[in-house]
Design goal:
Two copies of one chain form a homodimer. Chain A is mostly helical and 118 residues long. The structure holds a DNA duplex (30 and 30 nucleotides).
Chain lengths: 118, 118
DNA sequence: ATAACATATGAACAGTTGTTCATATGTTAG
DNA sequence: CTAACATATGAACAACTGTTCATATGTTAT
């Protein structure tokens, strides 16, 4: 049976470097989680929600109004953001207010914006 | 005809805040580009490629060998990374070496990892 | 020229994702 | 209790994505 993966017969890099790279790679699980995290940032609706929350905590229907989207769509996306621990929420009567969970969001979006604007 | 979007009859937030948020939102185009950028980070194969390139520039087939993936799959992903200006390449004979384009990658992945590891 | 190697790319397919619609849950006021 | 409002959620569907496979392009050596 043939190998599933084809690549060059010999590594071009020094074996020493290859070993070094392998050792320095984060755990497979962390890499997966990291990709999952960035998937969350990879949607402009969610990015817009995060930018809204930069200014102030806000309830679902106000976010929907601000972004001209349905309550359902926003609610679905807030759930994704919450599962990624990027936002948190508090209830006040009928209303649920969402707010940013921590400051990584600002740094990550800031760096991303820098890159995009270059 | 009904409105496509349903939300609360009145904004709960002060109109003043709503205006402020609207003014502070980046351009629609930048938000879109930003989401596109993070989509690129949102795949564990591409994340792994970037981590490999943290250590050293490397040719396609060595990356494929290191990650136990096909040459084709890696080449497709390198193209995505290149289009996002996250990596660049140089040719040396038959071999094409890829390397990180700038340091935003390190900061973004670093912050993401911090968030994930919390 | 041809052969061998490294990389790139187009088509196809399965798997994933974001929105809508309908409806359920939770809360408050009467 | 019921009505009204705010939010959450499951199903469905179209749109998008990552890999494989086959093949094309580019480079070097002979």
């Amino acid at each position: 049976m043939r190998e599933m993966v084809e690549h060059c017969d010999e590594l071009h890099s020094h074996p020493q470097l290859v070993d070094h790279v392998k050792l320095d790679m984060p755990d497979e699980e962390d890499l997966y989680d990291l990709a999952e995290l960035f998937k969350v940032f990879g949607d402009s609706t969610r990015i817009r929600i995060l930018y809204v929350l930069f200014e102030s905590e806000m309830c679902v229907c106000d976010i929907a109004a601000l972004l001209s989207m349905s309550q359902s769509a926003i609610s679905h996306q807030l759930r994704v953001l919450k599962q990624a621990r990027l936002v948190r929420s508090r209830r006040e009567g009928k209303t649920v207010y969402y707010f940013l969970a921590d400051d990584h969001v600002r740094v990550i979006l800031g760096q991303g914006m820098e890159h995009v604007e270059e």
